[in-house]
Amino acid sequence: MIVALAVLAGLLYACGVYLLLQRTLTRIIIGLVLLGHGANVLLLVAGGRSGAAPFGGAELVGRVSDPLPQALALTAMVITFGVTALLLTLAYRSWQLTADDEVEDDIEDRRLARLAELAPDRGPTGVPVGDETDGVTV
Amino acid sequence: MTLPIVLPLLAAGLSMVLHRRLTAQRLLSVLTVTAVLAAAGTLTVLVDRRGPQVARMGAWPADIGITLVADRLATIVLAVSAAMVLAVLVYAIGSPAARDDARHFHPVYLVLTAGVAISFLTGDLFNLFVGFEVMLTASYVLITLGGSREQVRAAMSYVVISLVASMLFLTAVAFTYAATGTVNLADLALRLDAIDPEVRRALGLLFLVVFGIKAAIFPLFFWLPDSYPTAPAPVTAIFAGLLTKVGVYAIIRTQTLLFPSSGASRLLLFVAAATMLIGVLGAIAQNDVKRILSFHIVSQIGYMVFGLALFSLAGLAATIFYIAHHIVVKTTLFLVAGLIEHREGTGALDRLGGLLRRTPLIAGLFLVTGLSLAGIPPFSGFIAKLALVQAGVDAGTYAVVAVSLVVSLLTLYSITKIWAGVFWGDPEVGPFAPASAGGPAPARPAAPPLPLLMVLPTIALVAVSVAIVVAASPLWGLSERAAADLLNTVPYVEAVLR
Fold first, then answer.
1. In chain B, which residues have their Cβ closer than 8 Å to the Cβ of A70?
2. What ipTM does the predicted assembly reach?
3. Which pTM value belongs to this model?
């Protein structure tokens, strides 16, 4: 059972990382969700072999599951859930603003790209004024 | 002791209910944060007199339940942070750009305060994760409060990077639990000695990477200079002052308590030198006040890691002193940058100029904090850097000491760049003057007056940074005692597990 769970966690991590490296926001978010699932499975595996349900007050016979990782996983799940909701709203807002699902280049990247296009033979003094505020006004 | 955590959380809920009454929200926030500051200050004195204080949530034993531990390091940073939170809060109320009238600003700001307090006071690895998440989730909301395109773009990468770090953190916690069967820091300090040294080293590195992303050390700093400057000035100020420092705190806590090394750590020394150098070089290349200051954060983190890397009493004490000084100075610098933006409507160096004549007050405030950041005597940065350099020389790490001195010079250079660009000269005749400046210069719109509530907190913080110099001797003594606690973990462990 532990081996199966460990393989599952590995798979989730692999898929999560793969999706995270994509350029579209929805895939990145799904990737993060998968990573979160992987981490939660890993937390459960960290608790060792499974056993009877660890209810307080009940008669505990034989092997009992470790309750602590379950509590940790539960907390982590709630957190991941909340942050995912926030990310989705952000992605929606980003789509509203740009009508596109792709991650934009940052200011430095854009400036470098423009520099390379505009003035391949000029020094960095060729930076046009106004670059910094690109897209700030909406 | 739970007050710094519980108070802001309760107030955040209340503030949510009061969302239509801005004045009530503001009053509530200020009162709460003042109470947190008072509690943190009292706790600092108490802990310094009586040693580490422990609170067990729900009276569960330490290895099962959640423990809060206040030792000297935690209370020092908590008290300094609380002071910053209060100053920035007043500044945000005064500043029109801060959008503190947005319905969710005050509740979220209080939650951020609680998250920072949890992260500092927790004695439990998983609870540290929760504290980080509380703090970060609040910061995601604060950074996107404007909802403009640039903010959403910057926030997206900020959120994704932070989340990846959080997932790594969770993974590291799972591995730690699998290896040792506990997530309590004090318990871990004992049990980690018993496990396979290779596993232990892997765990140590994993935690260094996780907290390294949060603290923005080389090579994991890339997200910071991109995301911080887009937020309104007060929000950037509180991020710059607190968030990365929580990461540094976590690095110090885990590296000294869980993975202590017996001498200077070569990896950390390299990381420290690279962080200092790359950060300041990035700052030199920038053209916007807030972006320059953001790169400075990275560079300054390098100094803190340097002191930690030495693993000596003097080094750790210097790091603690440096953190206290840095939180104050960095927050102030961003507040001053906010004043400049409020006055002139931009933070771009090539469009500013001549502010020295028009607002000598801002110039004076910037001069004191800027020189302090660069480490010019007699300001607080000088004492912090002197202590670090002495500790470095004592440990024989001359190369890193040399790097830190060069970086100091470069920091001074980029501070002068801001000074020359913003306060000297004439905005209309620079090489980057707008194209329309060919004819008679367009009439400058009358600069908006500076609200008193923006100026007062900034002056207060400058006064605090000067007070650090005046009170340097007792503060240094406190830093040294805190550092001694970090090197001798027995009282900490005993207080928790007793």
1. none
2. 0.82
3. 0.89
